[in-house]
Amino acid sequence: MGRGAEAVEPAPEMNPLLRAVPLVAAILLASSSPEPAAAIGADHAYAIRSAYAKLTDTFYRTVDARTIADGARAAIANAVRGHGTAGSPPPGEGTASILAAVDAARAHSTLSETALTYAALGGMARAVHDKYTAFLSPHELHDFTAPLTPTHFFGIGVLLAEDEATHDVRASYVPPGTPADGAGVRPGYVFDAIDGVRVRRIGLQRTRAKLLGTRGTVVRVRMLRDGKPIAPFTIARADVHAPTVYEKMLPNKVGYIAVAAFGEPTAQEFGAAIARLQQQRANGYVIDLRFNGGGYVGAAVAIADTFIARGPIVSVSGRTGNQEYDADATAIAPKPIAILVNHYSASASEITAGALQDAGLATLVGDRTYGKGVVQELTYFNDGSALKVTTARYLTPRRRVIDGIGLAPDVAVAENKRARLGEPAADAQLAAALRIIGGKIVSAR
């Protein structure tokens, strides 16, 4: 267990559709006063001390220190039930009492020191009664951060979509620079055969499995364009990753940009997508943030900064003061913008949407957003676990509170049944956004 903290704003755990959640900062926590740690290992003692300091000093609401210690001791006692007894630690306060409780429980139960330390950390986190503050085991931390970190695999680099009726699989998006893009594969092409084996109607997962393989190996793909076979592709597999942003040009030269998560590569991917749409002379933009549960605040600020020429983007208010993030005067030329949102658009999504809405640059279309307006910091430990603590809340440029409220759309449109997001003919919310953008384009002429 080790030392280090990073501010992060995660996606809400309730979002069932996110596969693919900061004020990016590195903060080193100094150990508190060197009270004796009995027989507790140095890493475990440090984790307990740093977690205690994080909760008592930086949790965004004032919390009684005794409550934190009581929560840890109660969790230790609960953990050892059926595994022995919690022992009788000497009376004390603060981290000294928690360390003593771990040591006593270890001496009188069969649980390991790691299990008891985890129990203490979890008890401290739960004691503040905040649904976003939690201790994360190594496995839980991996699951938490996975959507924000590019997943690398060896393949041809194409996003797949399956026809619900026929189970044929098509290329829904071909990221620029991937082997598929270099070979000439384009969105809409249907997979007919892979390495001589027919793949019509076998479904997405089985088709995907045939496209993956060892880096450098060659896969031969036969595809259909508008139902007609085209010359086969010979493509060498390479190290590729699933993008968090993809774009395409829709009718009336409206650029559509879908953002799946605000991860590590998102700001760069978004800038590249905008550049490609500008090269195609886009008349306006639809930014799709539906089912985007959030991620790094820095990515949200960078995307908003693409369009906002001056003024605030978001302000963050914590116990140590307020911090405002302003536009850096590098915005692109203004064009009509609509932002698609729904109940699963949260945290970083709400920062971007709220900033553009307050600036009068975008029309929000869809459903009210989730309403997560608080920021967490992750404090990492050497064994791969971490403590996630709510340290601040954020406000829109017009000082609107989002937490527990969300953003109301300017134009409310319910999602249609069997919607195929990103396809105007089968996506009522997107179709409404295109009508709004079309009207603004005509008015601007």
UniProtKB/TrEMBL annotation:
GO process annotations (BP): proteolysis; signal transduction
Pfam families linked: Peptidase_S41
InterPro entries according to UniProt: ClpP/crotonase-like_dom_sf, PDZ_sf, Peptidase_S41A, Tail-specific_protease
Domain Tail specific protease: 228-414
Alphabetized SMART domains for the sequence: TSPc (SM00245)
Domain of life of the native organism: Bacteria
Any one GO MF annotation of this record: serine-type peptidase activity
The keyword Ribonucleoprotein is assigned to this record: no
Keywords carried by this UniProt record: Hydrolase, Protease, Serine protease
GO (cellular component) term, any one: outer membrane-bounded periplasmic space
PANTHER family attached to this UniProt entry: CARBOXYL-TERMINAL-PROCESSING PEPTIDASE 3, CHLOROPLASTIC, TAIL-SPECIFIC PROTEASE
Protein name: Tail specific protease domain-containing protein
Organism classification: Bacteria, Bacillati, Vulcanimicrobiota, Vulcanimicrobiia, Vulcanimicrobiales
